[in-house]
Design goal:
With 341 residues, this protein is of the alpha/beta class. 36% of the residues lie in helices and 22% in strands. It has an 8-stranded mixed β-sheet, sandwiched between helices. The longest helix has 24 residues.
Length: 341
């Protein structure tokens, strides 16, 4: 006769399964929900901290093995779900909750920062997350072109409605000025524009707001850090020394502003620009290296055609790298949210 299986014995088994990123067991993290024992069958839901969890399959496998090892268990039913935690920062300027706000920055232009921002946002949305993308590059708003959309969603209740493309809510200065018109603004006007993109846009509830910053360490980055408490920042660099020097300045600026650096991305890796610089920068700064994106023509072609490469060429090396990086970013955000809880 089989031993009676108890809820306590199942929880004890699942306490042996640890999330490798958060370094705590699934039970103490409150990731086990809806646990039921029906005869020889055990059923439960694992609620991940992000739908883009890079170790989703591993956690499910380990949980299944742990419960199957309990005497008497014949069948284990596991449902996978996700609930992105908030970083706990109050964002009074935003009309509806934004759980995590992440800036994508670089120390100089021409490193593909906007391309990285677009593809990270779309990759996170593909995983099932609620994602917004704010084009804070006021002077050079290229993201509407990369997303293949030219106008916002209109106005409702005196608020701008973001455009939507590929599952991402998008707002950009490019929607508000004629193509090719230059913006000749000083710092106070720039600060006001960024505040309005936060307070006067109906973003709705978001798991992640990805903010594409202009290059450098000027007014836009400072205004954003003052107006929108950030969960963290991602630094994008090219592999060569000149780009690394500028990226290092940007990284140091955010550390001075007490914004967590989620990690470094090396873009355009390959024969032309070289390889390995991103790892060196991350190591020197003692921050995670999130990954490298190879230099491929499909990335440029996709952006010009208004389709991010993760959509247009999902099996390309660049797209695969960007999707893997999106999972790493989501994991780092979860770690930072747990630390601030």
């Amino acid at each position: 006769m089989n031993e009676q299986i108890s809820v306590e014995s199942v929880l004890a088994a699942l306490r042996q399964v640890e999330d490798p990123e958060l370094h705590r067991d699934l039970v103490s993290l409150n990731m086990i929900r809806d646990l039921e024992v029906n005869g020889e069958t055990v059923s439960f839901t694992i609620v991940l901290t992000t739908p883009a969890c890079p170790l989703k399959g591993t956690l499910e496998k380990q949980a299944r093995q742990a419960v199957q090892a309990i005497p008497g268990v014949r069948k284990v039913n596991i449902k996978m779900d996700a609930s992105v935690p908030s970083d706990g920062r109050a964002r009074g300027l935003v009309s509806l909750p934004i759980r995590n706000a992440v800036a994508v920055a670089s120390g100089k232009g021409g490193v593909g920062k906007s391309t990285v921002s677009v593809n990270l946002a779309v990759a996170l949305a593909q995983s099932g997350a609620r994602v917004g993308l704010l084009d804070a590059d006021i002077y050079g708003p290229n993201i509407p072109t990369m997303m293949g959309i030219r106008e916002a969603g209109g106005i409702a209740d005196n608020k701008l409605i973001p455009a939507q493309a590929y599952g991402v809510r998008l707002m950009s200065m490019g929607f508000l000025v004629p193509p090719g018109q230059p913006l000749i603004w000083r710092g106070p006007m720039l600060h006001s524009a960024i505040r309005q993109f936060l307070s006067d846009v109906e973003w709705g509830e978001l798991d992640y707001l990805i903010v594409d910053l202009p290059p450098g360490t000027g007014d836009a980055a400072l205004s954003l850090a003052q107006s929108l408490p950030l969960s963290g920042v991602i630094i994008v660099t090219l592999p060569q020394a000149v780009s690394l020097e500028d990226a290092s300045r940007g990284l140091n600026m955010f550390e001075t502003l007490k914004v967590p650096v989620l990690g470094v991305i090396e873009n355009m890796r390959g024969e032309f620009f070289g390889a390995g610089g991103g790892e060196k920068l991350a190591k020197a700064a003692n921050v995670p290296f999130l990954g490298a994106v190879p230099m491929e023509a499909t990335v440029r072609q996709s952006s010009d055609n208004g389709q991010p490469v993760v959509i247009a060429h999902p099996d390309s090396d660049a797209a695969m790298a960007l999707k893997a990086i999106a999972k790493q970013v989501a994991a780092r955000i979860s770690v930072e949210a747990l630390r601030s809880a």
